[in-house]
Structures are given as structure tokens and as C-alpha cells.
Amino acid sequence: MFLGENHLTGVEGLEVFQRLSLLNLDRNQIRTLDHASLPPSLHTLSLSNNLLNQFPWEFLESGSRVSWLYLRDNFINTIPLYNFKNRKKIDKLDLGENSIGQVSQVLFNGTLQVRDLNLELNKLVSVRGGVFKGTELGRVYLSQNRLKSISDETFIGVEDTLEYLDLGGNQLQIVPKALARLRKLKYLYIPSNNISRIDNDTFDNFSSTLSALSLSDNRLEAVPFEALAACKKLSHLNMGYNHIMQITEEDFIGLESLDTLLLMNNRIVELHPNTFRQTPKLRELSLSFNKISAIDLEAFTDVQDSLESLEVSFGLYQEEFPEIYLKPLKSLVWSSLYTFKNLQYLNLDGNRITHIPGGVFHSNIHKELKDIRISYNHLSIPRDAFQNTKLERVDLSNNDFVVVPSGALGEVGFTLRLLDVSYNQIEHVDATMFPETPLLTGLNLCYNKLTTLADNVFDPLTGLLRLELCGNRLRTNYKALLNRLSSLRELNLGEVGLRSLPALPQLRHLVSLNLSSNALTDLSVGAIMSITNLRTLLLSKCRLAAVPQVWTRLPLLKHLDLTYNPLRVSFTYFPFKFRYKNILIQNLVT
């Protein structure tokens, strides 16, 4: 039963639903919970985003069978020192986004067994010893608190049960010694702290079980290879957003099982020969946002058969496409990519690449390649660059294209679904550019130099779901332009120079319309009649002095943005307020 997003201040009479297993009361105004009004059959109870200021221990004591209890985003500031008469067991307890400042005693004196405990986004400064004793915790989330220290005895009692620990977004300067007690830990996340060193024995006690480790956004200057060497089962390692200046083969000794390696946003300037020799199963590698200016020809040789995803956006300090360095990669495709036969995703955003050589992506090698992103470069693309590929998404935004590279895109053909050529210098688009890509579902032409569009330019794209034309000063017949796009769901006409809402064809599937940053002073009822199924309407930064009288024609509207308009009416003017989820009216002129 879902009763969320109402104005309930309490619940009464629900006890009659003797077989009710799920009750959602999120986003109401409930301050207290009358446990007698709830059926004992509940398996899941969600009270997130209410006004509770006390933990509802009476409900748990009452004989409830609840297994999942969500109390997120309330005003609970303490966990009561309460002994349940009969030991309770609960699978998931979510107390995130409350005001809990400390857990000073053993949680519920050890009378509540909790498999999954979420205490993220509270106000914890420290965690004392033994607080989880008797809980048999499997997963605990302590991220986004104010933790500066954790007692060495914190995890007494859960040494052999705790498998997942999240300490991200705190103020820790070292990896807590309390972790040395844990013997079954599989997932350890300590991102966004102030850690500058990792002791060699930090992971010793759970090195045989550790599968995923995140140390991102700390102050590490090198890969802690001595601490990691014994972690034979580690498959995911995130060391992004640190101060690492160099990586070598020795940094990854012992990590034969590594599947994902994230090193983005460091200070790496060079890739040495056989850097990844110790990681023969590596499928995903991110080196984005570094300053790599030198790459040895043998840098990627050892992952040529395994690598599927390579990200080096804003990471290369050179103007030529790095074909020669990528040549060993059998999962990355083109003569330098010819060795990257399993490559599915390639991100080269934000480098200084001016040219992609023809034939760099080979249809017989790169059969799995689906997604290419080469934005923020200075590209020219030959016609055969994507020949016979099966790409589904191509991002060429923020380059210097004067025309859509339709010849190269036409070689992709029927598989292409999403095309982004926004933020270029494109001045002309016509109907000859899309016949070879008729199955496009998303097209972004925003912020080019388009001024006119022929009526038939989008006629081949009858399955288009999202069209973005914002930031072009267009003079066009929108009714004719969009006439064949009957499946369109999202239309962005922000900042296109409109002074009134133009006549549109019948777009029965259109649910989102962006008209922001135009010179609109009103919306006519007649113009709205063809788009009556809208759920989202964005009208920010227009010239509306009054709220348009179109709401009765938009019965499904849920999200309305009127920010930065010279409106001279109060919020009480809005009819049908009860049905809206979001009404934004900042900068209202009163």
C-alpha cells in the first residue's frame, strides 16, 4: 500500500489489513507512530521524509514481523537504550539523513539483530568500541558523517559477519585500525577523506576476501602496492582524485583478478612499458583528467585481449589521435585499437585530437563497440571513420564542426540511436543528412549557429524520442518541422528566439517541453491543445508577467518551472496545487 506524498499526520485503522506486507508512508507529516494502528503482518514499512523525532521502538516490540524498516530523512537524534524482551531480527534498518550525533552504547543492548544498517548523513563524530556487538551486522553505512576517529574496538562482535563497510565522506586521516579485526570484509569504501598513507598491513586480515576497494578523493601520492599485494580477489579498485604522479607494473603485483581500475583525476604524466602486465583480466580503465604526455608503445600490450572500456577524457596532452599507443589493445578498435576486440565504450573527451584516421574502428574487430565519446576536441572525421561499425551512441559535442559529419555517421547506419553534436559551429542541416540513420531516438543540436530548418529535415527520423534545438536563433515552421515526429517525448526549444508559443502538430506522446530563455509573455490555450499530455513544462527566464491560463488543458502536468520571470502574483494563485510535485518560482516579483 502506497500512501506517500500526502499530508498525513498519523495513521489510523490500518490494523484491519491483516495480510498487508508493504506500507509506504514516505513524504508525509507524521510525528509519532501509533503501532496499534499497523498490522503485524508488515514485512516492509517506509516512513522516510516525515517529522519523526524518536525511534519507533514500540512498533518493533509489538510483535511486528517487519524485516525492512526505512526511517530516512527524519529528525531522530538518538538511538534509544532499549532491551527488547524477545531478541528481534531485522534485515534492513535505514536511519540515514537524521540528526544522530552518537551511538554511545551497544546498539539496543545487543537485543536487535540487523543485517543491513544505514547511518549515513548523520552527525556522528566518533564511533565507540563494541557498539555493534550482538547485531551480527553484514553491511554498515557510515558515510557522510563527521567522523574523525573510530575506536579500535568498534567492530568487536562482527568480525566474522561484516562484509560491507562504507566510511566515505568523513574526516579520517588514516585507515582506522579497527578494520584489522575484520576477517570477512568484501567491500570497503573510504573515499573523500584526508588519508595520505596506507600502512602495509592495513588489509592483511581480510585480504583473502576483499573484492572492491575505493580510496578515491584522498591525498595519496602513490598506489599502496605493498598493502594491496595480498588482495588476490580484488576486482574493483578506485584510486581516482588523488595526487598520484606515476604508475608502474610493480604497483599492481598480486592483482591478477582486477577487473576495474579507476585512476582519473590524478597527476599521471607518463605510461611505462607493460604498465598493466599484472592485470591480465582488466576490462575497464579510466585515466581521464590526468596530464599524460608520454605513452610507451607497449603500455597497453598486456590488456589487449581484455580491455572493454577505456576513458582518457581530458587526459592526453597531444594533438594527434593516439593510434600508435593503443595499437596493442584488441578490445579498442583501429590500427592502434585493432587489438581491443572486446571494447564496448571509448571516451576520449577533452584531449587535443584534431583528426581520427580512417579505418581506425574495424568492423571485424570492434564488433562490441557501442559508445564513442570524443567531445571537447578539434576534430575532423573522414567518411570511413565509423564504417561498418554497430555504434549506438556517438558524442561529438564541443568540437569545431561546421556541418554534421553525415557521411561518417551514415556509415554507421541503422544501429545509431543517440547523436550529440551540440556546441559546434553547424550552420546548416537538411534532409539529406539523416536518411542513413533512420532509427535515431535522441538528437542534440543545441548551441550551434542554425538559423533556419527546412520543413522536411527530420522526416526520416520517425522514431525520434528526444530532440534538442536550444541555443539556436531559429526561424522555422515548427508545425511542419515536427509533423512526422509523432513519437516525440522530449522537446527542447530553450533560447531559440520565440516570442510566442508556435503552433505544433499533434504530439500525443510529448511529456517534456523546455521553452526557457525565450521572449514569451503568455501561452495561448490554442497552442497548448496539441500537447495536452505534458508532465514537465520549463518556462524559466521568459517574460511572463502573469501565470498563463492553460492549466485546465494540461491535466497531467507535475513539474513547472517559472523561475526568473517578472511575475506579479502570489503562490496562492496557482490552481490545482495538489497535483504538482515541483513548482519553481524563484525571483518572483511581488
TrEMBL record:
Record-linked Pfam families: LRR_6 (PF13516), LRR_8 (PF13855)
InterPro entries to which the protein is assigned, alphabetical: Leu-rich_rpt (IPR001611), Leu-rich_rpt_typical-subtyp (IPR003591), LRR_dom_sf (IPR032675), SLRP (IPR050333)
Q: Tell me if Secreted is a UniProt keyword of this record.
A: no
**Xref: SMART domains:** LRR_BAC (SM00364), LRR_SD22 (SM00365), LRR_TYP (SM00369)
Keywords assigned = Leucine-rich repeat, Repeat
- Protein known as: Toll-like receptor 2
